[in-house]
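Side project, low priority. Logging it here so it doesn't get lost.
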Amino acid sequence: MLVIPAKKPYNLKNIQDALKPHLNKLVKIKCNLGRNKSETYEAKIIKLYNCVFLIELVQNKSIKSFSYADIITKTIKIYE
């Protein structure tokens, strides 16, 4: 799993720094949809912005965006 720094309070800079080594590399993203529903994507992190990051799905080349807050709240988990 992607290692997020254990510093509290979390800030966007720490999470962004943790994602930088995985830029343009394949990762697996598990997205929690609630009520025991989840989706798993095999994707490549393509761009990091101030508040969000973009991924490109391997299956159909579509682009999705997630916020760094999704990582903090554990709405998504990123695996290597």
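Brief comment: Helices lie at 12-19, 68-72.
Revisit when time allows.
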